[in-house]
Amino acid sequence: MGIKVIAENRKARHNYEILEKLEVGLMLQGSEVKAMREGRANLTDGFARFKGDECYLQSIHIAPYVNGGYANHDPDRPRKVLMHKREMNRWMGKLKTKGLAAIPLKLYFNKRGFVKCELALARGKKLHDKRETLKKRVMDREAQAAIKSRRGG
User: Fold this and answer.
1) Which residues contact 139 (CB under 8 A, 6 or more apart)?
2) CB of 32 closer than 8 Å to CB of 46
3) What b/e sequence results for 46-57 when a residue is b if at least 16 CB atoms lie within 10 Å of its CB, and e otherwise?
4) Please, are residues 60 and 43 in contact by the beta-carbon 8 Å criterion?
5) Domain of life, per the record (predicted)?
6) What is the CATH number of the domain that holds 53?
7) Which tens digit of pLDDT belongs to each residue from 47-76?
């Protein structure tokens, strides 16, 4: 069966240099999980923030479940991240370094049906780095097209 991707933060790879990744769990309400099964989540502006000895995902929008009724959730509430104490302490130490941020890359259901989040430790890219990445991508694409045309395909 494998994993089913709910939402992906595609802008993250363009705006940030990914240094490290980590799979974490989330503490969710029932209506949030049901809304995610319908694919109604958005990670675009999301980030993780440490408060005391806990970590929370902020600015992640999970639309209300259509049949939720009175038991529906607040779409923009902070959601607690479930991670091991040792990992949390290591990441808190790294985040104190200037310029680093913890951002969610994707939300997905694992094989057992639990919602997981791929969290990344990232450093923001400057404008010239973004331009350089785009130039490299265009050059690679042109090189692949030239190789393909040479082969006759």
Assistant:
1) none
2) no
3) bbbebeeeebbb
4) yes
5) Bacteria
6) 2.40.280.10
7) 999 998 899 999 999 888 888 778 788 888
Q: Are β-strands 61-62 and 79-82 bridged in parallel, bridged antiparallel, or unpaired?
A: unpaired
Q: Which of 60, 24, 62 is nearest to 43 (CA)?
A: 60
> Token pair 């479940």 is at which residue?
65
> What letter represents residue 62's amino acid?
I
Q: Is 25 exposed, middle or buried (0-12, 13-18, 19+ CB in 10 A)?
A: middle
- The confidence score (pLDDT) of residue 49 equals 92
CA dihedral for 141, 142, 145, 151, sign (positive or negative): negative
In a domain, 59, yes or no: yes
Residue whose token pair is 């999970």: 62
Please count the structural domains in the chain. Answer: 1
- Record the tokens describing residue 126, joined without a space: 């400057």
Query: Three-state SS for 52?
Result: coil
- Indicate whether 152 belongs to any domain: no
Average pLDDT score over the chain: 87
Domain holding 53, by residue range, is: 4-125
The whole-model pTM stands at 0.78
